[in-house]
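Look at a sample.

——
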Amino acid sequence: MTRIKIKREQKTVEQMIRLYCRHREGNLELCADCTSLLKYARKRLENCTFGENKSSCRKCPVHCYRPDMKERIRLVMRYSGPRMIFYHPLAAIRHLITELR
């Protein structure tokens, strides 16, 4: 079974982390902290118990992130979320639609 929704979520998270690392931290390439966060987020999405039926992570009843990584991804999303519409509009619109479901 293809996991299209999970792959799309992974791509969106990667775009958000890259946007944060470049614009907030001033790095041209992903730094070590952002790389580890990206790997962690990909792994969490890949192992999501809801699979293709998942909602956005914010609305999820299961909190699968460790507290330190949860805080880190929260900072990334808080910074990148509003800016995604300018840098990755299609991903931002898809994410908003997912949030509304």
The two ends are 23 Å apart (CA to CA). The mean pLDDT is 90. Residues 15 and 88 are 8 Å apart (CA to CA).
